[in-house]
Amino acid sequence: MLQVYLKECLYFTANRLGRIVSRMAEDEFASSGMSPTSAFLLMAVFEKDGISQKELGHILHLQPSTVTRLIEKLVAKNLIYNRVEGRLSLIYATDKGKATEEVINECWNNLRRRYVAILGEEGDALSFRIDEASDRLEKPN
To answer: Which of 111, 86, 100 is nearest to 29 (CA)?
Structure first.
């Protein structure tokens, strides 16, 4: 009976999926020297140099304290720097950070290829469905 409960439980199945995909992502992003989340933060900076910490948190669905820790790690690696303008902390990529863009994109593509090899094109559809469900659960009204 427990197995049925676990399979019907969104909490359990989502966490299980998260752990499996996290291991895959960590494997694929190891060559970048960054965690997958740090790499995705840097990708957001590539897309919008001078992005605010608040906007990074919103895009990546992370708490401000988590964004601050990730930024501190990337600053320590000289991949980004921040500039305070009034009440905003704006984040920019350094030349060293910009040089990682190709490696990060390769890691992302390898991760995607890895799960598509297992799930087929259903992997992309599943990702979109999970994102939609997350949006609905986050803002139920």
So the answer is: 111
Helix, strand and coil in the chain, % to nearest 5: 75, 10, 15
Q: Contact, 52 vs 66, CB < 8 A?
A: no
Residues 62 and 53: beta-carbon distance below 8 Å: no
| 90 contacts 50 by C-beta, under 8 angstroms | yes
State residue 4's pLDDT score: 79
d(CA 83, CA 91): 7
Q: How far apart, in whole angstroms, are the C-alpha atoms of residue 99 and residue 129? A: 33
Q: Are 97 and 38 in contact (CB under 8 A)?
A: no
Domains of the chain: 14-138 (1.10.10.10)
For the question of whether the overall pTM of this predicted structure is more than 0.90, the answer is no
Pairing of strands 51-52, 88-93: antiparallel
Q: What is the dihedral of CA 37, 107, 34, 27, to 10 degrees?
A: 90
